[in-house]
Amino acid sequence: MSMTVREILMEKGEQRGIEIGEQRGIEIGLEQGKQLGYERGDLYRKCEMVKSMLRAGLDKAQVAEIAEMSVSEVMEIASEM
Fold first, then answer.
1. Please, which residues have CB within 8 angstroms of residue 67's CB and are 6 or more apart in sequence?
2. pLDDT digits (tens, 9 = 90+) for 55-73
3. What is the rounded distance in angstroms from the CA atom of residue 75 to the CA atom of residue 79?
4. Cα gap 48→66, rounded to integer Å
5. What angle do CA 39, 42, 44 make, to 5 degrees?
6. How far apart are alpha carbons 15 and 4 in whole angstroms?
7. 3-state SS string over the chain?
């Protein structure tokens, strides 16, 4: 059974829509991946900064204020040292 021109065009349009959707999904995934990477990198640098300040002898409350963290977060990082 042969397809009509209308059916052929509809099938091609559907396929094109799927391709566009897949490409957009890939773009969104890449952007989210980059954002997550930046956030993890920022957190890593912040933790390293906190560790450095603690090794230098700063009080946990001072470190928390400087790092804009809670004292409990600083204490958690300190426990990992």
1. 46, 49, 50, 53, 74
2. 999 999 999 999 999 999 9
3. 6
4. 13
5. 110
6. 17
7. CCCCHHHHHHHHHHHHHHHHHHHHHHHHHHHHHHHHHHHHHHHHHHHHHHHHHHHCCCCHHHHHHHHCCCHHHHHHHHHCC
Q: What are phi and psi of 57, to 5 degrees?
A: 95, 10
């640098």: which residue's tokens? 45
Integer Cα distance of 64 and 79 in angstroms: 14
Question: Which residue's entry shows tokens 């600083």?
Answer: 74
pTM beyond cutoff 0.70 = no
- 10, two tokens: 């509809």
